[in-house]
Amino acid sequence: MKTFRTPVLCALLLVLTYQTRAQANRDNVPVNYLKISIKQLLSKQKHSGKDSITFLSEATMTGKLIRINKNKEFADVSMFNLIYYVIEGKGKLKTGNNECDLDKGSVVFVPRNIKSSFEDVTVPLNIIELISLEDKSKGDSASTSFSLDHLSAAKLPGKNVFKVFINNQSMLSGLYLLPEQLKGDSTIYTHRFDEINLITSGSGKFQAGNKNLKIKPGDIVYVRRGAGHKFNSLKQDMEILIFFEKRSVQ
C-alpha cells in the first residue's frame, strides 16, 4: 500500500501544481476589453474614503477617478501627458501661465513636466484622469481646454464624425459623434492603439469581440489594440470621448 500511495500522491500534487500555475497564468493575461461605469467608480470612492481611484492600469495608459474637495488646492507636475474630463463640480485649473474654468463637461489636456494646480474649487470636483505613459515625447508647451458643447458643434446630419482635439506624439483624442439614424458603425474596427471610450451622451450597444455590451452615458470601455469593436443599435444620437495611446504601436 505504501508503494502505491506515493506515486498517486505525487501525481495529485503535480496536477494541483499545474492547475494552480494555469490559474495564475489566466489571471495574469491582460484582457482585451474592460467595461466600468462612472457610477460604480463614484460608489467605490464614497465607500473607500479615497480621493483617487484607479480603474485602469496598463503598460501604456492609466485611468483614474480623482476628487478635489471644496476650498482645497492641489498642485502637481506630471511626468506624462494627461487629459482631465470633469464629471461634476466647479473650480479652476492653472497650468503654467494658463488658467481655465472647470465645470461639468470640461476637457483639458495637460502636457508633461508642466506644473498644474486646482484652485478656487467652489463645488467639489470629480474628474476622470487619463494618463499616457509615454516618456519619450518632446512634450507640448501649453495646456489646451475644451468643452463638450463646443466639440459637439462639429456634428453633421447623417454622418459619423470624429472631432479630433489632441494629436501629438503620445496620444490622439477626440469626440466621436454618431447620429441615431445610422445606428452606429458600418464595420468592425481594429486599431493599432490601446483606447478608452467614455460615453458622454446617448445609448446603444458596443460589440466587444463576440459580446454585445449595453452602453449608456457614464460608461467607460477600454479596448486593447488589435481587438475588434463597433458601436451599434443606437437608441439616440451618441457622443463618445475617445482616448488613443500611441505608445502601444511600438
Structure description:
- The structure is a single chain.
- The protein is α+β, with helices and mostly antiparallel strands.
- It has two domains: 38-146, Jelly Rolls (Sandwich); 149-249, Jelly Rolls (Sandwich).
- Helices cover 17% and strands 48% of the residues.
- It has helices spanning 2-28, 38-48, 148-152; strands at residues 33-37, 52-57, 61-68, 74-77, 82-95, 98-102, 106-110, 115-132, 144-147, 161-167, 171-178, 194-201, 204-208, 211-215, 219-223, 229-232, 238-245.
- The strands form three sheets. Strands 2, 3, 4, 5, 6, 7, 8 and 9 form an eight-stranded antiparallel beta sheet that branches. Strands 1-15-12-17-11-10 form a six-stranded antiparallel beta sheet.
- It starts with a helix and ends in a 5-residue tail after the last strand.
- Pfam families: Cupin_2.
- InterPro entries: Cupin_2 (IPR013096), RmlC-like_jellyroll (IPR014710), RmlC_Cupin_sf (IPR011051).
- It comes from Mucilaginibacter gotjawali.
- One of its GO terms (molecular function) is isomerase activity.
